[in-house]
Task: structure prediction
Amino acid sequence: MTEEDRFIRYLMDFGLSRQEALVYRELLSGGKQSGYEIAKEAGISRSNAYTTLAALVEKGAAYLVEESAKRYIPVSIEEFCGNRLRRMEGEREWLMENLPYENAGEDGYITVEGETNIRDRMLNLLDRAEERVYLSCSLDCLEQIRPWLERLAISGKKVVLITDSTFEIPGVTVYVTDPKGRQIGLIADSRYVLTGEYGQGSMNTCLYSGQRNFVTVFKNALANEIELIKIQKGEERR
Result:
């Protein structure tokens, strides 16, 4: 993915359509412009340009400047994204307070597919951990989530990692073992498990569950893996 593609995709995450993101990027690059100028630079029809610019004004990404001819200026990225985040936080709080039903239980077995979805589930588990986290994965995976692990350690939560290379965070216990590849296994507070394959590539599928028996089996498997690592390291020292 190119930097331009990523720029557009991230703008779309903030509520813009692809064409709106492209026009907003053009405004950010070229500054104050008319609909005609935008149409020419973006390679779209003039009617589409004005429709898109009007949508950007409505969504808070651009301002209309009334001069001899209508021109548009971009709202800064910092201001636009900040405004969207602030509104969404208020909306999130309202939604949480006005749920039409009880939260669904998490004691079944849920398949989580896609790199982004798995990463989101993993980070949510780390954010919600109250006491302890055990995580088995590659060094690359750990580096991606280092800030979350550091926050857990700073807050006094127990963090135990099983990985395939040296990795250091003060207050975190790390066991080094054989290459992990794309395999991950995460257990939070002895209540929730996420396990499967995660990383760059087309196959990203994990199983997520709060089912007690499954959690117990997975917890015992991690404990056995740690004991095996201890035994192997002891043999190496001898």
The mean pLDDT is 90. The domain at 109-237 is CATH 3.30.870.10 (Endonuclease; Chain A).
